[in-house]
Amino acid sequence: MRIDGQVVGRIGHGHVLLVGFTGSDRLEEVEWMADKVVGLRAFADDEGKMNLSLLDVGGELLVVSQFTLYGDTRKGRRPSFVKAAHPDQAVPLYESFVRALRSRGVERVETGEFGAMMEVDLINDGPVTLILEREAE
To answer: What domains does the chain contain, in order, with CATH numbers?
Structure first.
């Protein structure tokens, strides 16, 4: 990942996380998501089945803040971002999420800069792309 042409984050085998928050997200969602990310069995075992977690494979994480995930395109021609958390709420949630990932034993957690224009290159192995979202209880 680059900001203004400078590499600010790089990982090997692992996950690239595009992370966004809504106005209703709280620390409970952050903790739940961190548990889900490190425990999700999304890596192939010796038989090619998705049966190993990030921790099982010693995987790394690149965490990218991405408020545009909550862009609503149902009306008009320009996305609305009213569901996305305002930066004064989203930044602490993002920082808490990164700390939570590190506290769960992920050895390498790289990040960009919240709100910066970032260039992200990735090799999508598989390809496997998943959306993780906690439903309201």
So the answer is: 2-119 (3.50.80.10)
Torsion of CA 119, 32, 67, 113, to 10 degrees: -40
Radius of gyration of the chain (CA): 16
Is the distance from CB of 57 to CB of 43 less than 8 angstroms?
A: yes
What would the pLDDT profile of 56-70 be if each residue is shown by its tens digit? 999 999 999 999 999
Cα→Cα distances 25→10, 31, 91, Å = 28, 11, 12
* Catalytic machinery residues: 66-68
Q: What's the rounded Cα separation, in Å, for the pair 56 and 41?
A: 9
What confidence score (pLDDT) does residue 136 get?
A: 65
Q: How many CB atoms lie within 10 A of CB 19?
A: 21
- Structure tokens belonging to residue 119: 């260039």
Per-residue pLDDT at 27 exceeds 90: yes
What the block records as the tokens of 28 is 């409970």
DSSP three-state, residue 33: helix
The owner of tokens 């990310």 is 37
